[in-house]
Amino acid sequence: MPNYNIVSETGEALVKLLREGMVPDIIPNSEGIGVCHPSDRGDVSLGICLYDIRRNTDIIQTDRIAVGTDKLKSPSSYVDLYFMITAYSSSDIKFRMLEESKIIGRAIQLLEGTPILKGDVFGKPFSDLTHAPKIEMLDLETEEKHRIWNSTEHPYKLSVFYKVYPIEIESEKITSITRVVETDITVGQK
Fold first, then answer.
1. Of 101, 66, 64, which Cα lies nearest the Cα of 86?
2. Residue 135 exposed, middle or buried by CB count within 10 Å (0-12, 13-18, 19+)
3. Mind listing the domains of the chain with CATH numbers?
4. What is the pLDDT of residue 179?
5. Up-side HSE of residue 32: CA atoms within 13 Å toward CB?
6. Residue 176 has pLDDT above 80, yes or no
7. Which of 124, 134, 145, 184 qualifies as a FRET site for 52, CA 20 to 30 Å off?
8. Cβ atoms of residues 16 and 185 within 8 Å
9. What is the model's pLDDT at position 98?
10. Among candidate residues 127, 130, 135, 119, the one with its CA nearest the CA of residue 48
C-alpha cells in the first residue's frame, strides 16, 4: 500500500517520464531534468516544482477497512498535486527563448501522451494504488501564473502547470476491535 512517500515519488515519476523522452535529444544529460524550486534550480534545464497540494474532493472515504478479524484501519486520504514545469536555457540570448519553447513543447507532448501514471511503467508505488493518478494540464490565466511565480522573487518565465490526481496517502491508524462472539436472548411472557 502507498504511504507518505507517494508525494515525492510522484515528482520522481514525472522526472523519469520526461528524462526518458528528452535525454539526450533535447536535454544532453539526465541531471538536466529535476525537481527543484525556481529560485534554487542549479544546472537544471527543465525544472519541476511542486507548488501546491490540495485535498481531493472527488474521493472521500469514511469507512474503515478490516485488517484481519480484530483490527480496523482508518481510510486513506486523497490529495491533488500541482506542479509548475519551467524550461531554463543557458544558450545565447538570441536563441534562449526558442530553446526554452522547444523544451516546453516536448514536455507537453510527453505529459499529454501519458495521461495516467500506471504501475507497470512507473514502478511499485503506483501499482498498489486504488486509483491510478491522472496527469492533467491546467488552463490558468496569465495573472494566476504570474501570482504563482511572484513567490519565487524571480521574473516570470514561460511555464506549464499540471495537476496529478488523486494521490492516495495511506492511513497508519489501526484500531483493535472485539467482535461479538456470543449473544444471549431470553424470551418470556408477561
1. 101
2. buried
3. 6-171 (3.30.2000)
4. 65
5. 20
6. no
7. 124
8. no
9. 94
10. 135
Give the pLDDT confidence of 59-109 residue by residue, as tens digits. Answer: 977 776 766 777 787 888 999 999 999 999 888 989 999 999 999 999 999
**Residue whose grid cell is 486509483:** 131
Please confirm whether the linkage preceding 24 is cis (ω < 30° from 0).
Answer: yes
Residues listed for the chain: 190
Grid coordinates of 14? 514525472
State the pLDDT at residue 76: 87
Question: 116, 121, 130: which is closest to 78 by C-alpha?
Answer: 130
Residues with Cβ within 8 Å of residue 109, at least 6 apart in sequence: 21
Place of cell 496517502: 169
Is residue 2's pLDDT more than 60?
A: no
pLDDT of residue 22: 97
Record the cell numbers describing residue 84, joined without a space: 509548475
- Calpha distance 178→72 (Å, rounded): 10
And the C-alpha cell for 37?
Answer: 524550486
How many angstroms separate the CA atoms of 4 and 172, rounded?
10
Q: At residue 146, does pLDDT exceed 60? A: yes
Give the Cβ contact number of residue 122 at 10 Å.
21
Q: How far apart are CA 52 and CA 56, in angstroms?
A: 12
Confidence of residue 32 (pLDDT cuts 50, 70, 90): very high
Task: Write down the H helix ranges in the chain.
Answer: 6-22, 93-113, 119-122, 124-127, 142-150
